[in-house]
């Protein structure tokens, strides 16, 4: 019997060497993340992106029926933190491959997490 059952894949990406112009452009960032979601066949429910003033970065999220894609950028460090979490049968690997194609000059450190749950028989009940 398998104790843990994966209900989704969660991918954390540290993305380096991006141009500071892109890291400050909420519209361009949203276009990239929407393309990533579409290629993975995710269903976008809503999106919200905010640009911080001056030379600040962008924070944003695509709310998906299958979970989310989020980003936080630091233009002064040429860095973005991207989070892709998708449940069900969607392949997060496809989303990551598309992101790599859309940002070909970026260096990425990628960490994978299987989001798992324990069957009820293995969860302690509160007394």
UniProtKB/TrEMBL annotation:
Give the EC number(s) under which this enzyme is classified. 4.1.1.50
Q: Which cofactor does it need?
A: pyruvate
Q: Which GO terms fall under molecular function for this chain's record?
A: adenosylmethionine decarboxylase activity
**Stretches of the chain forming a coiled coil according to its record:** none
One GO cellular component term, please give it: cytosol
| Assigned keywords, A-Z | Autocatalytic cleavage, Decarboxylase, Lyase, Polyamine biosynthesis, Pyruvate, S-adenosyl-L-methionine, Schiff base, Spermidine biosynthesis, Zymogen
Q: Does the keyword S-adenosyl-L-methionine apply?
A: yes
User: Does the record bear Lyase in its keywords?
Assistant: yes
Give an example GO biological process.
spermidine biosynthetic process
Q: What is this protein called?
A: S-adenosylmethionine decarboxylase proenzyme, prokaryotic class 1B
- Write down the species: Snodgrassella communis
At the highest ranks, the source species' classification is: Bacteria, Pseudomonadati, Pseudomonadota, Betaproteobacteria, Neisseriales
């Amino acid at each position: 019997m398998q104790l843990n059952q994966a209900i989704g894949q969660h991918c954390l990406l540290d993305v380096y060497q991006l141009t500071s112009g892109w890291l400050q452009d909420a519209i361009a960032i949203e276009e990239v993340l929407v393309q990533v979601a579409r290629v993975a066949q995710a269903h976008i429910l809503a999106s919200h992106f905010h640009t911080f003033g001056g030379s600040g970065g962008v924070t944003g999220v695509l709310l998906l029926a299958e979970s989310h894609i989020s980003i936080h950028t630091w233009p002064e460090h040429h860095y973005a933190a991207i989070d892709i979490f998708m449940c069900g049968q969607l392949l997060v690997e496809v989303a990551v491959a598309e992101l790599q194609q859309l940002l070909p000059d970026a260096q990425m450190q990628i960490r994978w997490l299987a989001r798992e749950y324990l069957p009820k028989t293995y969860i302690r009940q509160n007394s």
